[in-house]
Amino acid sequence: MEKTEKEPHKFGLVGKNISYSFSRGYFAKKFEDLGLDDYSYVNFDLENISELNDLIAQTENLKGLNVTIPYKEEIIPFLENLDDAAAEIGAVNTVKFNKGFMTGYNTDAYGFQRSLEPYLKAHHKKALILGTGGASKAIAYVLKNLGISFKFVSRSKREDGYTYPELTKDIIEDRLLIINCTPLGTYPDVNNKPNIPYDHINKKHLLFDLIYNPETSAFLQNGQARGATILNGLKMLEFQAEKAWEIWNR
Question: Is the per-residue pLDDT at 1 higher than 60?
Fold first, then answer.
């Protein structure tokens, strides 16, 4: 009997300066483990999101995309549909192709909640979210659903938060969950960190860094030195990747 050749399935990551990407290695191993030799995953490093339409037109058998910095918000106008959660969050990190239509989803929220919940204590009632990019929107969505009040911290003044110079001892000691959504400290700039008053962090704090490379960022090191519980973003990435895989295959 003549062997039928399987249709290739191509997936990829859209972002900028993404040679370090977690997703490509994760899915390459997943495809290998599952024996999916007709599946592939590619990094699509775009200088500008305006290149997306040409990329899609030139890439055959594209089934799904992950989206990372800085395009989680900018990709939305290119999509035909948005999942309810992604619409509420206002950011997309997963795209599914179906009969020529692109639907956007946000699996960052799922990944963050799954990785955070086992470490939450009763006193983690208030949070600071460092950064205001696309990833921070998913974090805010989860905290809202968990009943944890939060304030954003950014370089520019906004009504729902603080600037970094405004952070005081009282603010830090009152908000015992601190999440870094900025890229500060990512390899190779491993000595960089958000400019917060670390001296006021204590053993009741839980510090979560969306960064996973290095394993213990300068932000986390400073928290750990003062007795805080620390978490990096690796588990979050694994959970969100598995959710993306589920979306692509349903």
Answer: no
Identify the pLDDT of residue 20.
Answer: 73
For the full predicted model, state whether its pTM sits above 0.85. yes
pLDDT band at 235 (very low <50, low <70, confident <90, very high): very high
Whether 92 is in a domain gets the answer yes
CA 24, 26, 28, 31 dihedral sign is negative
Measured CA to CA, the distance from residue 166 to residue 67 in angstroms comes to 32
What's the count of helices (H) and strands (E) in the chain, helices before strands? 8, 12
CA separation for the pair 245, 153 (Å, rounded): 32
Taking alpha carbons only, the member of 230, 185, 240, 176 closest to residue 208 is 230
- Residue 134: is its pLDDT beyond 90? no
Res 21: pLDDT = 80
Q: Do residues 188 and 143 touch, judged by C-beta distance below 8 A?
A: no
H-type helices in the chain, by residue range? 22-33, 52-58, 84-89, 108-116, 134-146, 169-174, 218-224, 234-248
Q: Which residues are catalytic?
A: 72
- Residue 156 within a domain: yes
Task: Report the alpha-carbon distance of residue 162 to residue 49 in Å, rounded.
Answer: 30
Same domain, 187 and 148: yes
Question: pLDDT by residue (tens digit) across 92-101?
Answer: 999 999 988 9
- Partner residues linked to 44 by β-bridges: 14
Q: Strands 101-105, 81-82: parallel, antiparallel or unpaired by DSSP? A: parallel
Residue 122 belongs to domain with CATH number:
3.40.50.720
Closest CA to 12 of 59, 81, 47, 73: 59
Domain count, the chain: 2
Query: Contact at 8 Å (CB) between 67 and 93?
Result: yes
